[in-house]
Design brief:
With 113 residues, the protein is mostly helical. The protein has helices spanning 2-22, 37-62, 81-112. The radius of gyration is 29 Å and the shape is flat. The mean pLDDT is 79.
Amino acid sequence: MADWVLSIFVVTGAVIYLRAAMNLERLQVGDALGPQVFPSIVAICMLCSGLLLAWETWRKQMNPEGSAPPAPKPGDGVAHPSADRRRHQMELREISDWPRREDSEAIRAEDDA
């Protein structure tokens, strides 16, 4: 409930702030954009964040269990974490050895030529 209240206050504040920014008078001297640009950008960012908070709150209410996938059960064919870690370590070793392999192959090709 608190998220809904916060999002409503943020959106309302953003609309009021944007309206106030649009009512700033244009100056004849200075930047061609005038003093309205920065407050308008801030108001639009506030509006987007309030709408995003409302959307996330609505989505959370539609899916109360969360969006996390269910935990794998034993015997589902999921590899053991240590095996997965070993596979990642082996891949990293191969990636880090790749430049050295390329250099050694280039040297061998030069020696053969």
